Amino acid sequence: MPVGRRPRPADLGCPVTADPGRWPLRAPRPTRAARAYYCFEGGWSLLHALAFTLALLYQVQVAGLTPLQLVVVGTVMEATCFLFEIPTGVVADLVSRRLSVLIGAFVVGLGILVQGVWPSFWPIVAAQVVWGIGWTFVSGAVDAWVTDEVGERAVQPLFTRAQQLHLALTVVGTVLAGVAGQVSLQLPLLLAGAGYLVLALGLSVVMPETGFRPVPREERETWAHLRHLLTTGVAAARRPGVVRSFLVVALLVGLSSEVFDRLWTARVVESFALPSVAGFDDAATWFTVFALVGSVVSLVASLAANRLAGPRLNALHPNRLLAGLVLVQVAGILAFALVDSLWPVLVALWVKEAARTVAHPVQAAWLNRNVESHTRATTLSLTSQADAVGQVLGGPPLGALATRTSIPFALVVSAGILAPAAFVLARLRPPRSRREGA
After folding, report:
1. Which residues constitute the signal peptide according to the record (predicted)?
2. For the chain, what percentages of helix, strand and coil (3-state, to nearest 5) are there?
3. Residues 176 and 279 in one domain
4. 215 C-beta neighbours (distance < 10 Å), count
C-alpha cells in the first residue's frame, strides 16, 4: 500500500525559470515551497520507516494478534483508505491543500500513538482507522499542493529528488527502528507517533500556499458544488487518455501487489534457511538487513537513472519507459517466485522494488500534467482508490490460492495480472494538442 502532488509567484524565495520550449533536466535552486516539500517527504519517510519496520513483529509478539486478526487489521486499513480517499480529496480541492496535509500528518501521528500505547486487538484496529483517515488527507493533496506552488513544468525534477530523499531517510528510519526496538518494540511506535505531531507543527510554520485559490467561504458547504467537483473528476477518468489509462493501471497494480506485499516474507522464511554471520541468524535481524539493502539498491537505481537517462525520465510522454519498468517488475516477481536459491531470490526482490521506485515519480508527474488544477486532488484520489479496490479484491482470492496451492504459484498469477499494465501504458498516446505541438 504508499506515498502522493498557475503561476509561480516571485515571493517563494527564488522564482522558477525555464525555457518554455525545453523540458528542464535539472531542478532549479529550491524555492520556499520546494524546501517545505523536501522537509515533508524526508520527515514522513523517516518516521514511516521508524513506525513500521517492526510494527508487524510488535503486533505478533507484544499484542499477541492471531493470523486472522492480522488479516483483519490489514483489511480495515485498506477499507478505511478506500472509503475516505474521495471525501478528503474533495476537502483539499475546496478548502486548502496545505490544511489537508497538516491535518493528515497530525491524525497519522495519533493513529500510530494509539497502536503503540494499547497493544491489543481492538485498539490496533481503531488505530488503523485513524491512520487510514490521516493518510487519505495527505494522499493526492501534497502532490497537488506542490504542483500548484512550483508549476507543472518544474515538478518532475522535484518529485525525483524527493523520491531519492525518501529512500535515503527510509534507511535512516529503519536503522533507528532497529536500535529503538532493542529497548522495546513499543518504543519505535511511540517515537514515530510523537514525531508526526512535531512534523505537522513544523510544517504549519514553513509550508506556504500561494498557488491555490480555494472556493469562496459562502460556497464551501454547497452540496451541489461537491457533486459537480466529483462528477468532473469522474468524467475526466471516463474519457480516453492518460487519466483513464492510469486508473486501469492502478487497478491492475492493486490486484497484483497485495499478495506480493503480504507473502514475500513467508516465501523467504518457508523456502530458505537464513544464513548465520557473526552469530546473527534470527529472522528479525536478517529481514532488517534485507530492508536496508533494498532501500540502498532503490536509491542507487534512482540516482543512476536520473543521471544516465534524465531526458527519458523527464519526457512529456514517457509511455515506453514506464511500460518497460512494469515489465521489469513482472520479471522480478516471476524470478522471486520460481528461483530456488536465497540470494538470487533477494536480488529479484530488490530489482523489482528498484523498478517501482524509478517509475513512481515519472508516473506521478505525467499524471499531474494531464489533470486540471481545480480537480487535481480529487482525480489523484480516484487513482489511489482504484489501487485500494484492486488490493481489496485481489488480496483475499490470491491469498486463498496460495493456501490451496503454494505461495510461488500465487505469485506467478499476480505477475500475470500485472503484465497487461505494460500494454496499457505502451499504447497510450499523447493528447492531440501536444502531438500537434500546441
Report:
1. none
2. 80, 0, 20
3. no
4. 16
Q: At what angle do helices 283-308 and 342-369 cross, to 10 degrees?
A: 50
- The CATH number for 433's domain is 1.20.1250.20
Q: Which residues contact 102 (CB under 8 A, 6 or more apart)?
A: 200, 203, 204, 207
Q: How many structural domains are present in the chain?
A: 2
Q: How many residues are given for the chain?
A: 438
The phi-psi region of residue 258 (left if phi > 0; otherwise alpha if psi is between -120 and 50; otherwise beta) is alpha
Residue with cell 508516473: 363
- Are residues 133 and 260 both part of a single domain? no
CB 50 within 8 A of CB 177: yes
* Residue after which a domain boundary falls, among 166, 183, 211: 211
The distance from CA 211 to its chain's CA centroid, rounded to whole angstroms, is 24
- Angstrom distance (rounded) from CA 59 to CA 334: 30
User: What are the beta bridge partners of residue 277?
Assistant: 280
Structural domain of residue 379, as residue ranges?
Answer: 222-438
DSSP per residue, 88-108: HHHHHHHT-HHHHHHHHHHHH
CA–CA separation, 290 vs 145, rounded Å? 34
Q: Which of 266, 284, 220, 257 is nearest to 359 (CA)?
A: 257
Regarding whether 150 and 232 lie in a shared domain, the answer is: no
Residue 122 and residue 248 in one domain: no
41 half-sphere exposure, CB direction, 13 A CA radius: 25
